[in-house]
Amino acid sequence: MELNPVFARRLYLAFLVEEMERPNVPRLIEATGWPRRTIQDVIKSLAGLGIELAFIQDGRRHNDGYYRLTDWGPFKREWVENRKRDIVGTLAG
């Protein structure tokens, strides 16, 4: 299956946010190897696909916390999960 790399990156990050325990930017950087700015840009772009994330404040500092996927929007989680290998393959090159 051929996917657009930008689209695949967004789906993969949404999948990681849902699968990881307390996913924050540093943990997402570690899981993907992507630069901080890329992670931040992809997080911001998810709303444009209808995927909703919530930031759960968990600490005293302003950005202390993690993300939670609250709505897959027009996508089915199962579809993304079943095509995870294709998505990762698209990102690998």
Polypeptide structure, described:
InterPro entries: UCP037266 (IPR017162), WH-like_DNA-bd_sf (IPR036388). This is Helix-turn-helix domain-containing protein. Pfam families: HTH_43. The longest helix is centred in the first third of the chain and has 15 residues, at 5-19. This protein is α+β, with helices and mostly antiparallel strands. Helix 1 crosses helix 3 (36-49) and helix 1 (5-19) packs across helix 5. The chain has a two-stranded antiparallel sheet. The chain is built from five helices and two strands; from the N terminus they run H-H-H-E-E-H-H.
Taken together, the total number of domains comes to 1
Rg over CA atoms, rounded to whole Å, is: 13 Å
The assigned structural class equals: alpha+beta
In whole angstroms, the N-to-C terminal distance is: 13 Å
Let me know the average pLDDT: 94
Number of contiguous helices: 5
Give start-end ranges of low-pLDDT stretches: none
Strand count, sense and barrel status of the largest sheet are: 2 strands, antiparallel
By CATH, the superfamily comes out as: Winged helix-like DNA-binding domain superfamily/Winged helix DNA-binding domain
